[in-house]
Design goal:
The chain is mainly alpha-helical. The chain is 80% helix and 0% strand.
């Protein structure tokens, strides 16, 4: 992709999908899940899911939509960067694709409590307290699966940062901030699994670092991609050289005329 208009258009489309990914993910995880699921309080959580079933299911739909958007975003970024470094562009897509099945498994666990708490006939062998405990087990599985997928949410930012820097379509600092975002997600993953009791300092560092991907998203939406003058000049020079060579070959006294 060498047309400046096409590069800018693709960049802005990618930015729109990036924003949509952030909004759907924020709604589903930070608003619905954190509002309805109260850690350590089974009774409040069960009551919230039971009385706010529509909102709970809307959170499920938002998460599924976010994964579809994530895949489209990966495709748009691949189109934008494939001629910069095909290997890194493919790695970016592979890491995104790998994260989606893990998220879908997590969402099945998220949906399970709505089935359990509706008490279908085949669950008659369980009393109400047992059903509530079973619902909480699935919510814990959902939480753990989401913690696992954070490793992919971080790692895909590594090839993205490399591509940003190599492409010269964007300021290099945006690529460095993507590295910071990668570090934040990976650190959050490691803290949650290796330090069960948590570490306030490391958790704070991780939360700050993950915001490193926001500037690139905003740049895509607002400014698109810049087309470095050096690239345009190189292409212009190459085109002029090719034309001059063709004219020389075709001319009677040009390169096509062999010395006697």
């Amino acid at each position: 992709m060498s047309d400046p208009k096409e590069i800018r258009r693709t960049a802005r489309i990618a930015g729109i999908f990036y924003l949509a990914l952030g909004l759907t993910g924020m709604f589903s995880i930070m608003i619905v899940f954190q509002q309805l699921v109260i850690p350590g309080d089974m009774e409040a959580t069960i009551a919230n899911i039971t009385t706010s079933g529509s909102l709970y299911r809307l959170g499920f739909a938002g998460n599924i939509a976010s994964q579809i958007i994530f895949l489209v975003l990966a495709i748009m970024l691949y189109r934008l960067f494939v001629h910069v470094d095909k290997t890194q562009a493919r790695l970016l897509v592979a890491l995104v694709v790998a994260s989606v099945p893990v998220t879908f498994i997590a969402m099945l666990a998220y949906l399970a409590p709505t089935i359990i708490l509706n008490n279908p006939g085949y669950l008659a062998a369980f009393n109400h307290e047992q059903l509530k405990s079973l619902a909480m087990i699935f919510l814990d599985i959902h939480r753990m699966a989401f913690q696992m997928v954070e490793i992919f949410w971080g790692l895909w930012l590594l090839p993205l940062g490399i591509l940003i820097i190599k492409s010269r379509f964007f300021p290099s600092v945006l690529g460095i901030l993507e590295f910071a975002g990668c570090f934040g997600y990976v650190l959050a993953f490691l803290v949650k699994f290796l330090l069960p009791d948590g570490s306030p300092v490391l958790e704070l560092i991780a939360k700050i670092a993950v915001f490193g991907e926001i500037p690139f998203m905003l740049w895509l939406i607002i400014l698109g991609a810049r087309f470095p003058e050096s690239i345009g000049k190189d292409q212009e020079t190459t085109g002029q050289a090719t034309m001059a060579h063709s004219q020389a070959v075709e001319s009677p006294g040009g390169l096509s005329q062999q010395p006697q």
